[in-house]
Amino acid sequence: MPLILDIAVTHIAGRGRQTLVALIGVAVGVGFSVAMAALMQGGQDDFVRQLVDTMPHVDITDEQRTARRQPVEDLFNAVAISGLRPRDDRRGIINPTEAIAWLESWMPGRFAVSLKTQGVIRYSSREVGAAIIGVEPERERGVSPIVDDFVAGNFAALAAGGNNVLIGDTMASRLGAGLGDTITAVSSEGQTRNVKITGLFHTGTTARDEGEAYVLLKNAQILSERPNAINEIRIKLDDPNRAPLVAHRAEAELGYKAVAWQEANEAILQAFVIRNIIMYTVVGAIMLVAGFGIFNIISTITHEKTRDIAIMKSLGFPEADMRRLFLLEGVAIGAGGSALGCALGFALVYALSLVSFKIAAAGREMTHLPIAWSALHYIIASVFAVGSAAVAGFLPARRAARQNPVDIIRGAT
Fold this sequence. Notes:
Blueprint: H1 2-14, H2 16-54, E1 58-61, H3 71-75, H4 96-106, E2 109-123, E3 126-135, H5 137-140, E4 150-153, E5 164-168, H6 169-175, E6 182-187, E7 192-201, H7 206-211, E8 212-216, H8 217-223, E9 232-237, H9 243-254, E10 258-260, H10 261-264, H11 266-304, H12 306-314, H13 319-353, E11 356-361, E12 364-368, H14 375-402, H15 405-410
Parallel strand pairs: 3-8, 5-7
Antiparallel strand pairs: 1-9, 1-10, 2-3, 2-6, 2-9, 4-7, 5-8, 6-7, 11-12
Helix pairs in contact: 1-13, 2-11, 2-13, 2-14, 11-13, 11-14, 13-14
């Protein structure tokens, strides 16, 4: 084997210019593949992180996943039921105290209960439709995405008691109100309550910044005429990946619809899978193009070294050694190009991470490109490169091994 390796190095070094071109081709392919993977993976991770941070990992509401069975179905063998008017059921989650105690006994994370009702926020002659959300400040602090997003006032002001409200800065701008002003909350049941603005938040999500108002739970229950009621339990887990298991267990026990964040964003996560398939297909295509350069070099070496092949085979080198020789040359070029490509890829990723810009779109600001630093990107690109190099070197290697040394020495074609 050392002798075969020495011959392979001699062959590669003998065509220095072509070898260098092939190495550069593989290196550029690997480097740009790593940079592309880091950028795309970084964007995906950043988006998923926003989903995980801004929404509950499990959301339990007072809805049923399937329609309730009608009493008439228990009495008659009906094929279809029509003309029934739904009963006005505004109870929310039944036995909330029992449900809370059960969750506290096993749930690995934090949760908060709330009562959400639709209404209108009025100030002066202006009004804005909003979701009025009643919360318990102590519990809400552990799950709410707005706690650290205040531009005026703070979340703790809600816990001070009284008729206080927290609204988004966009809603405040539309109303023409500011911190300390008193606005009127009107529920869909017609109940009104004057509340004082004690905090303005800015999350960057337009629907939340201009369409949500947070009050104490008891105030929301009074506005909606639903004493002691809640209609939502939001859960933040220590491990977000356990959300489907927790949601399944909660729904089976409580009987209410429990949605994990993966289920709520299933279409987006599927799009990421498709995008990753496309990305690695492009990486494979780049490596395939680089493989043609390696194939050209190994084919040229095989053609030029036909007499050397004849002499080696006449000295007793078996066909396996001939295949191994030229296959080793292709793999060596692929490995060398991969090493250079990894260095180039690291430099490109580092340069991308230094790109600084500022965008203010829909209230959200970004100052750096999202980059994922992962050794897996380098491994995958290198495996593609070495694999394509091995394939590119195999065909010339097989052709060289099959040559008859007698025909070569006689000058036969």
